[in-house]
Amino acid sequence: MKSWLIVVFVAVLMSFSVALAHATLIFGELSSPDALPDPQAGFGLRLHMMDPMRSPIEDAVVAAEFRLMTDEELAVTEPGAGAAVEGVSADELFVPEGDWLVFPFRETGPGGTYAADVTLPEAGVYRLVMRDTTYPQEDAVAELTVSLGGAAAFEETLFIFPPTDVGSARLSTWLVWLVIIPMGAGLAVTLLVLFRRAPDGREGASV
């Protein structure tokens, strides 16, 4: 087997372990390129995602979900002011019924950067739920409050997606991918290299 095939083999296995290591704290920075976003005309959202080691999170499946808040909710809630918001798993967040408008993010390039185009029916204060469903077992959310329209600027907001809650069965699966598979890849490469060198050594002895 040629050397480049060995490299590809290891890269594929390691990519699985890196991708599945996504179940950790994820930091999100949400902003808008529009100084004064107009919800009815449409505006853009920009998202940057990274892990605690500041490594970019790529290939994520993230969406922004908007719902216009009622007068009753506004009476007990104040719009956020750009402070960091800690998220929870989806089953821990009470999501009231209503007209939720969902806008998926698209990856705009390397470095964990994403973008979405948003159009809303009217100006006002919105409940914004950021949702991460990158993997089937993941459904992490962070709840924000944003004021849109008029002279309201969209301030950069920091939030945190929590680690995905994995059960014991899930934990064993993670250990297989994160420990056993990489170790198996290393052993396979070592054996391939040794077997590849063996014929070369015999040929050198016969000359």
CATH topology of the largest domain: the name is Immunoglobulin-like
* Proportion in β-strands: 25-35%
For the record, give the distance between the C-alpha atoms at the N and C termini, rounded to a whole number: 24 Å
Residue-averaged pLDDT: 75
CATH A-level architecture of the largest domain: Sandwich
What's the short version?
This protein is an alpha+beta fold and 207 residues long.
Task: Walk me through the topology.
Blueprint lengths: L2 H18 L5 E6 L11 E8 L11 E7 L2 H6 L8 E2 L1 E2 L11 E4 L1 E4 L3 E6 L5 E9 L7 E9 L8 E5 L6 H39 L1
Parallel strand pairs: 4-11
Antiparallel strand pairs: 1-2, 1-11, 2-8, 3-6, 3-9, 5-10, 7-8, 9-10
Helix pairs in contact: 1-3
Overview of this structure, please?
By secondary structure, this protein is an alpha+beta fold. The protein has two domains: 1-23 and 167-207; 24-161, Sandwich (Immunoglobulin-like), CATH 2.60.40. Helix content is 30%, strand content 30%. The strands form two sheets. It has a six-stranded mixed sheet, with no helix packed on it. It has a five-stranded antiparallel sheet with strand order 5-10-9-3-6, with no helix packed on it. A hairpin with a 7-residue loop joins strand 9 (124-132) and strand 10. Helix 1 (3-20) packs antiparallel against helix 3 (168-206). The protein is elongated. The protein starts with a helix and ends with a helix.
